[in-house]
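Running this now, will post back.
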Amino acid sequence: MTETAPEHPREPLPLDSTAQLLTRITAQLGTQLSLVSPNGTRRPMYRIRRSAPTLVAVAHGSRDPQALRTVLELLDRVRELRPALDVRLGHIELNEPLLPDTLDGIGHGDAVLVPLLLGRGHHVRHDLPLAAAAAGHLRTRVAAPLGPHPLLVEALYERLAEAGWRDEDGTSRDAAVVLAAAGSRDPDSDVDARRTAAMLSDRLGGVPVVPAYASAATPDVPTALRALAARGRHRAALASYFTAPGRFATVSAAAAPGIAAAPLGAHPAMARLLLHRYDQALTRTAPARGSPARPHLLASA
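Update: finished.
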């Protein structure tokens, strides 16, 4: 039996050079660091396609310069939560960029309009769908307003605590809270505010919470305070149910006899809620180009 010639031994694979190893380690480290936020906490890992629709946050607009700064800070928090998501800002009035200009700047593709509004009203029902329909180059969806929602209630609670509210205050028979909101002629807006007031009352341990409005609806804040005082509720705090500082928030806070919380602003719960409304909108069937889907007029928790 003849022996076969032995195979030539395979050449060993070359080892990575020091430079190659350093490059690989640096790339892996960069990937891991991208998952860590500036405060040291780990960012959620979302699989976001590059074709994910643009999130267009729609603010009302205000002459108060602090309003724009606050909204920009809120959107920075949103970007921290979803680093790969294209997040833009458009205003209904008073501030730039205006919503039509923002939509024009997106180019072709998909967009979700998320109103930075806390309940149903004319802007949500009419203005946003009309603006979306006018952007014929885009396929658009209009998300539900931010409220009512438990995340808003948590933000309201923490803003009250920051202003000096203590849990034991809720046990006092003369304590109460006025939920100061913008107001709307749309009756569903009042329904939404009352639902939020009830949820906040539960969060505060049962202390009475009554809604009041800065415009277009009744009662206003001073009237609500007098009504509470007539019921023996002389120590009323004010919860500011506004997305950002502005004239309505300032006037409402000035009427408060004691604790007056700051607007919701860039609270972390607001950023999470904004993304939640965006995700909700994406679960609906994609609309035709230039024909936005109707928003959820009843924003469920």
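DSSP finds nine helices and seven strands in the chain. More later if anyone needs it.
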